[in-house]
Amino acid sequence: MYVKKDRKEETFDNMTDIHKHCPICGTPIPLEERVCSQKCQDVLEEQQAKIKKSRRTLTILMIVFIVVFAFIMFFNNLMK
Ligand SMILES: [Zn+2]
């Protein structure tokens, strides 16, 4: 891991303006890299898992809301 870090810094010195930043710690990284290190890779995967989970929860909540709304509309129509 530390050897990789040294190589990364060497690459950074040779880099042109075209680069991006590690989404976790903001370290400049080559375009083909997603994150700067294995540690940040782990953090990124953990964050994405959380986002995925919260999106799924949100989707379920929306479905429940739509079903409840449909039921209310249905019974409103029955009352008329
Ligand atoms: Zn990083």
Q: Can you describe this structure?
A:
The chain is mainly alpha-helical. The chain has a domain at 37-80. Helix content is 69%, strand content 5%. It is built from two helices and two strands. Strands 1-2 form a two-stranded antiparallel ribbon. The mean pLDDT is 86. Zinc ion binds at residues 22, 24-25, 27, 35-37, 40.
State the total count of DSSP E strands.
2
- The order of strands across the largest sheet is 1-2
Alpha carbon gyration radius:
23 Å
Structural class, please?
mainly alpha
Q: What proportion of the residues is helical, as a percent range?
A: 55-70%
User: What is the helix/strand order?
Assistant: HEEH
| Bound ligands | zinc ion
Key features of this structure:
69% helix, 2 helices, single chain, 2 strands, two-stranded antiparallel sheet, binds zinc ion, mainly alpha, 5% strand, 80 residues
